[in-house]
Amino acid sequence: LKYFKQLKVFQGHSSAVNSVRFSPDGTKIVSSSSDKTIKIWDILSGNEMYALNGHLKRVNSAQFSPDGSMIISCSVDDTIRLWDANSGVEIRKFEGHEDCITCVQFSPDGRSIASGSNDRTIRIWDVHTGEEIKRLQGHTGQVKDVQFSPDGQKIVSASYDKTLGIWDVNSGERIHEMKDNLDYAVKAQFSPDGQYIISCSTEAIIRIWDVESGIPVKKFKHRCWINDAKFFPNGQTIVMCLKENTIRLWDVKLEMEIQKLEGHSRYITRVDVSPDGNAIASSSCDKTIRLWGLL
Known about the structure:
Layout: E1 4-11, E2 17-22, E3 28-33, E4 37-42, E5 48-53, E6 59-64, E7 70-75, E8 79-84, E9 90-95, E10 101-106, E11 112-117, E12 122-126, E13 132-136, E14 143-148, E15 154-159, E16 164-168, E17 174-178, E18 185-190, E19 196-201, E20 205-210, E21 215-221, E22 226-231, E23 237-242, E24 246-251, E25 256-262, E26 268-273, E27 279-284, E28 288-294
Antiparallel strand pairs: 1-28, 2-3, 3-4, 4-5, 6-7, 7-8, 8-9, 10-11, 11-12, 12-13, 14-15, 15-16, 16-17, 18-19, 19-20, 20-21, 22-23, 23-24, 24-25, 26-27, 27-28
WD repeats: 10-51, 52-93, 94-135, 136-177, 178-219, 219-260, 261-295
Protein name: WD-40 repeat protein
InterPro entries: WD40/YVTN_repeat-like_dom_sf, WD40_PAC1, WD40_repeat_CS, WD40_repeat_dom_sf, WD40_rpt, WSB_SOCS-box_domain
């Protein structure tokens, strides 16, 4: 088992930090904020490298492309923007959603992106042309999360209609509509091997679902709303952040909590795990990003 401690605090945003993601090589992190900016940070030094300016309202999410050369972001300003990760220059703007864009994700090959919106649609876009390739429709509530499967053939979505969806990327059809007394579903992510999905919702339950059947196979109950949850690269450990300002690590096989991390003074918005599984990054309404590493 790996145990973590706080290593660094990144400060520079002037408002809540809404997301944080590691670069593919694990040397940088990218953050998005309600201050309308995206920032790229050097992990070793803890210094800000670039601030990306262009969005007109709160930035909900930002992530690196699979090769680390670009960053994609989405905002309450109803736009998605593509940036050069090495210069901070905006490359392209994607427009078409009719309401706030809540989430955006690169495909594993980096050629397309998927986005979810309060307009209840999921859209797939061509990275190089900026054109909409496909529109996935079926949710009756705001779409709060989307993610490609590791092989790029499926997308999982989480919605405020209290369902999760698994979609076929090529046909655009929904393969499974997953319900299990879900409250508002806020996050859904594939396991590293693509066989399972982890989801969290406002009802304070983590669920692990079998992708093939669409049936939940495990549940972990907490006392309060869980904002985000992800598998470690080994697929056996889960990291999650709770509304009570803590980060929790769970062992999937043992079905028990193995560590609690404390340090943020306000609501933790997102967590991410480094590619090697040896670091955790967290973002918060306390305007900071925190890096956690092995004891």
